[in-house]
User: What shape does this take?
Amino acid sequence: MGGESFYFPLSGTVRCLEQWRGGGIISRDAMEGNMKLVVLGATGGVGLEVVKQAIERGHSVTAFVRAPERLEPFREQITIVQGNLLNSDELERALEGHDAALSAIGPRDPKANGRLLESFATALASAMLHSSIRRVIVVSVAFLFKDVIIPPAYLFGRLLFPHHVADASAMENIIMKSGLDWTILRPPQFTDKPRTGKYRVREGRLPRFGFTISRADVADYMIRAVENRASIGKIVGVSN
Assistant: This one.
């Protein structure tokens, strides 16, 4: 089990200090230059932050959305493609020629009984495997951390949002078995606080007392993860 990582801004360049299992600490520049990114779920709270911050970090952004109205402030800075996130052919066309996909897709109603995330993951995996793109960052839910006691995320999820937990679990299973270069992010409760760039990250677990994280800091981690291949094949917990 990996230790916690601590992220913070340093002299205008984002760097991360990661504490590994052996107790050593290394420093690594996370920036790898301009990338061509496709943002899925770009009109939600996290997705809008991903679009905004990716632009600020010099990346080229394509937003694949059903309804683009909320992206109006970015229209001159990004490419907007309208389509159905559950249609693998439309997704494949949007993904072609890009370096990575960042998914901030979530259910409209966490208490609703549905298979939105599972259906989306099926379409996305098929589209990516038929295109030249392999790198994907997927936002899931902290409710799937079964061994967390403080907070008892899995217990809360099973009691309060059983359908959402089951749907998110199915989504993760599809992504993990897809053969893609995936990173799955499991954040706890979202807040609307501004980006700090200062938060805790832990591989395979939610950081202790990790009750909340801002949508802006989730977006910050997603972009850092896609810039750095160290998190490929890992499930990550993140919190303020």
Remarks:
- The two ends are 20 Å apart (CA to CA).
- The longest strand covers residues 4-10.
- Residues 10 and 85 are 37 Å apart (CA to CA).
